[in-house]
Design brief:
The protein has 139 residues and is of the alpha+beta class. The protein has 4 helices and 7 strands, in the order ββαβααβββαβ. It has one domain.
């Protein structure tokens, strides 16, 4: 488990490796991404309408479809309880935009809370595609 950044009221966020990455370490790698840039790319996804309004705002808990509301609430509960969050698994979609393969609720709750960078897993085969999204980890 990695200790992570702080959000609102200095709550420390801890991320843990996603089970898919643990099961296939030869296939995945961890990178630190710039959340706003990933969010902007993901807006092009066919699935973004469930979480994002056309103007780019992330939907509130009450605005989400019921099935997504349950997922968001689970992430919010983990944060409140100080439990680790699984790192999202990202990839590149058919339209050359970022897709969230797993951990969409984790990623979007963190984006909504203003987290600037976070660890994620990507397929090693997508390493070159994600260079434009890498966060500066020196600060």
């Amino acid at each position: 488990m990695n200790s992570g950044p702080h959000i609102e009221n200095h709550t420390q966020i801890v991320f843990e490796d996603h089970e898919a990455a643990l099961a296939n370490p030869h296939r995945y790698m961890e990178i630190i991404i710039r959340v706003p840039d990933i969010l902007e790319s993901w807006r092009e996804s066919l699935f973004s309408f469930e979480w994002i309004w056309r103007d780019g705002r992330i939907k509130t808990l009450q605005e989400l479809p019921e099935n997504e509301r349950v997922l968001r609430q689970a992430v919010e509960d983990k944060i409140r309880q100080g439990r680790a969050l699984p790192k999202p698994v990202l990839g590149i979609g058919l339209m050359d935009n970022v897709e969230i393969g797993s951990g969409r609720a984790v990623f979007l709750v963190m984006a909504d809370r203003g987290l600037g960078k976070m660890p994620v897993h990507i397929p090693k085969s997508n390493e070159e595609d994600f260079k434009a999204f890498l966060a500066d980890i020196s600060s």
